[in-house]
From TrEMBL:
Domain UBP-type: residue ranges: 103-220
Name the UniProt record assigns to this protein: Ubiquitin carboxyl-terminal hydrolase
UniProt GO molecular function: cysteine-type deubiquitinase activity; enzyme binding; histone H2A deubiquitinase activity; histone H2B deubiquitinase activity; histone H4 acetyltransferase activity; transcription coactivator activity; zinc ion binding
Family of the protein in this entry: Belongs to the peptidase C19 family. UBP8 subfamily.
Amino acid sequence: PAPPSANPESEARAACGGRSPGAVPASPPPPLRAAPSLSSRSALFPSPVLWPSRPRSSPGGELASSSPPSPPPPVRGRALPPMVSRPEPEGEAMDAELAVAPPGCSHLSSFKVDNWKQNLRAIYQCFVWSGTAEARKRKAKSCVCHVCGVHLNRLHSCLYCVFFGCFTKKHIHEHAKSKRHNLAIDLMYGGIYCFLCQDYIYDKDMEIIAKEEQRKAWKLQESDLSTAAKQQQWLQPRVGEKFSTWEPTKRELELLKHNPKRRKITANCTIGLRGLINLGNTCFMNCIVQALTHTPLLRDFFLSDRHRCEMQSPSSCLVCEMSSLFQEFYSGHRSPHIPYKLLHLVWTHARHLAGYEQQDAHEFLIAALDVLHRHCKGDDNGKKANNPNHCNCIIDQIFTGGLQSDVTCQVCHGVSTTIDPFWDISLDLPGSSTPFWPLSPGSEGSVVNGESHVSGTTTLTDCLRRFTRPEHLGSSAKIKCSGCHSYQESTKQLTMKKLPIVACFHLKRFEHSAKLRRKITTYVSFPLELDMTPFMASSKESRMNGQYQQPVDSLSSDNKYSLFAVVNHQGTLESGHYTSFIRQHKDQWFKCDDAIITKASIKDVLDSEGYLLFYHKQFLEYE
């Protein structure tokens, strides 16, 4: 490949059509603070069953030189500290509100009088942890909202009087306002809420009481509950011990001492939005970087400074560079970032992507995850990242799922099952050389030459149903059955044994064959929310001969996902351009076109062609 330009900014300006790259205002994140008691379903770091990684091949993209070219030259400027960025607010866009962080809630003094400890212990024993069967029955009968009479809607109890009220419907808020009783306790998880602070608060004395009563309740449950009853109580235990209190380290205390200010994040805050300079046909990298930097769990991991590099040369560690990249994105700087270091490391560790030729975004995603996985071995308590039974790196925790393959003998109906790891799911599209049969209920159409012609729009669910339907392997692909002890015809079916936290769906728009190279432009409708329950291995019995039947699953909410990033490709197989849509906050979407970031509507996102779709689990479970 040709050597890079001596001036990356001028080269980037030329790649953007000669116009100066725009900038998007942003504000830095708030400092570390104590969190309330957490539920067993929260967006932190679960520890799912993990699977090994493997390099993936992907359509699109040409192989380049075997040796990496020289990296683009560095850009002069002062580097940010590794943990905390301190940009100065400027302009109306930086409308963050500065205030000195208080040492704690000042409204507890009105409650901490007389026998407050005994009263708090009684509330925890009777209405929160409920260790005995009698206490659980009392809680089930008496803990109802005194206004609407329901058990749900985040029931809270007033700490000053006997009143239960719904937090969701604001009944407890109305009581606090009328009676001036400003403290309440969450009856599910024991968090203390202050209505004057408008937030859950932390108090060391109260936390000690909560932990003591929780341990007592656990001991009572172990001696009182049967094995079947224990299985019904999986939601409440396992939380307090592991995620009870945040104890800052000496380094964190020093950082908080030098940075006592906090910023108020508003609904219209644009924190984390930052353009990326195109260094010469690097739009494929920029769109994937935008998706990764807006992955919630990955963002929390790197902004918490969780990576501990054990490589001999940290400058060659891709995880260290990603950590610096996250700091840059969430530092509050507005000017587009120049990812020259990231590009050089990708060239070094994934040499088939080296050079300024056009590459495939999906291929870059898999290569980046593989390198990050290998470089994360130092974060896994000394366990090797290539050990499938022990790897617990952040990449495996977030992106790795388990794909179950069931091969059934057509003679004895014996089933051979294997489970393989995956980082993404590649889905065939109608219009490709692979036959396609959408299974949408009520869809009309015909099958001609093994290819369906359906009136209506193909959906992502159609693609997933086809992916998980039974497939007859035929007489040319007989397998040796362990039951029959001979080669027999068989069927094969793929299902999801374990879902990843972030599910990436790759729509196979680039078709390569001996006679044909083309891009498939078929529109595929994809939803903002996706339920993966029908495609789980546990739901396989609900399908009869490939026909889908809605399973009855009380835990289907655990398999629901929300869309947070979409990567699109405009152009042909030979030339084109990548852009991405990323979700900011709940319903705010932005289009990232290299250095240019513009606001987008949900309609713009759902009407886009779609090449890579990123979904995040709505609920997480601790193990």
